[in-house]
Amino acid sequence: xxxxxxxxxxxxxxxxxxxxxxxxxxxxxxSYLPGYLNxxxxxxxxxxxxxxxxxxxxxxxxxxxxxxxIADKVLFADEGNDRAGSLHFGKAEEVLLSVxxxxxxxxxxxxxxxxxxxxxxxxxxxxVVSSETLWHTFxxxxxxQVLVGxxxxxxxxxxxxxxxxxxxxxxxxxxxGADK
Length: 180
What we know:
The chain is mainly α. The chain is 84% helix and 0% strand. The protein has helices at residues 3-39, 42-65, 67-75, 89-121, 131-154, 156-179.
């Protein structure tokens, strides 16, 4: 298995996971819908549930169908013909961190669509959630998740190199202690 194949497999798996979670959330939304309609309008219910479910489905489908594009253009863009190289531990760590970053970013974007749904469905007379709850519970964590995901994704190679430098330093320190 090449590093590119490993990345594609993980991206497809992540897309399928997002799609599966969308189905679970859709069944929950359907079960909550009658009670929610007693409290608010159909538009509010659709804005809260439908917007988020559509975002989940689109992100999951994109990840599943675009695994080659993401692997080639994003993860292995600067490696030229080395894409078919064999998978070694350091490259596997880099791919795992990159995919983790993509996953965090995807779920942060899904959280932002949830926030959008709550914002669209709220009116000053009938807020679905308070602005403080919206800000602290939905918006700030979603933005943080997107930023942390992008940071991990963009710095995955550097994080792996840094980790290996720390491990080498630890091993050298242990050797010096054993020599005494």
